[in-house]
Amino acid sequence: MTNSIPFFGNSIVKVMKEQIFDVMIIGQGLAGSVLALEFLERGKSVVVLDNGHISCASLAAIGIYNPLIIKRLRKSWKALELIEHSKAYFKRVEKTLNAKIIYDRPIHRVFANEEEEKHWSEKSGLAAWADLVENSQLTLFDKTFSTGKVKHTGWLDIPTFLEKTREHLTSKDRYMKCEIDHSDLHFVDDRVSINDVKARKAILCEGYKVLQNPYFNSLPLSPVKGEILVVKDPQLNLEEILKTAFFISPIGNDLYKIGATFQWDDLNENISEKARTQLLDKTKAFMSDEAEVLEQIAGVRPAVKDRRPLIGRHHEINNLYIFNGMGTRGIMLAPYFSGELFNYIYKGKTLDPEVDIQRFN
Q: Which domains does the chain have, with CATH numbers?
């Protein structure tokens, strides 16, 4: 059964039981948070149910957005369109939440060899790439590295975004902390309910846990475990994002996030010594002897085999939807496609066939 744990006593539960919401969102990771704020901004009443981030892949993310698949020096799907939309969205959200969450920062790719440097030079000389990359240099500890500088990049403070969104929703009686048992979901006529919380529609944003969901567990999710480190290094003095084997991203106060690893087997949410060693070994040339690991975080990302989100309506239940599969580019994908899902539900517009779950039917 669902074990509801309200933040401010039974008054919230009473309010929720007395109201029929337009939308019930299950899951308050990055996707669910973006979706909730988008639908609220566009005038819909929303209630969000979440387990309080007992497990949340969003917290195990570096939080970087960029238009490239850097290792292969390829443009990612809809890159600049998605980034432009995402930045505008999070700038609006900063005002709503009264918190700074998005930061523009260039990425410096440290060249592995002369061949890679030559490849970047050739690309940066092309008109189609001039606004995306350029050859550059970065000096750390009196050593200068040749780098490829990527533009239109930055990072989102995901922990702050999730925390402030939860506080915002709670202040409006729009958030309930609870464990969800899918057998408690009931669909009658045009209503969905779970333990007396009622809505006209339900949208599931459960990350890789969708594999345990009887309504959408046939979708071809290919989850991948990732781990990151939070490191304090008072000597590094790095203000821009560094990309070597892993990202090193400054987050303020001499703190840096390093990661993330990729692991397709042993999909648990526990931190591992193997990942810690891998992250430190591959980045130690860019850190000082004073670097200290403060935290290690693990999560399982909801990746999809075709690298496109999973969005759409259940094939039989007309008021049940999914918003999932954002993978490593959720910061870019979620804001844009939350709007697309709204238009699909309420304005009768079609979803992009590349993200619509009907592509698997």
A: 20-60+159-219+305-360 (3.50.50.60), 104-154+222-301 (3.30.9.10)
The list of the chain residues with pLDDT below 50 reads 1-11
Buried b (16+ CB within 10 A) or exposed e, 315-334: eeeebbbbbbbbbbbbbbbb
Q: What does the CA dihedral 56, 60, 63, 66 come to, rounded to 10 degrees?
A: -110
d(CA 81, CA 283): 32
* Residues contacting 322, CB < 8 A, separation 6+: 203, 204, 205, 210, 215, 216, 219, 310, 311, 312, 314, 357
Q: Which residues pair with 345 in a beta bridge?
A: none
Identity of residue 304: V
Q: What is the pTM of this model?
A: 0.93
| pLDDT (tens digit per residue) in 175-215 | 999 888 889 999 998 999 998 899 999 999 999 998 899 99
pLDDT in tens, 113-124: 889 899 898 888
Identity at 116, one-letter amino acid code: E
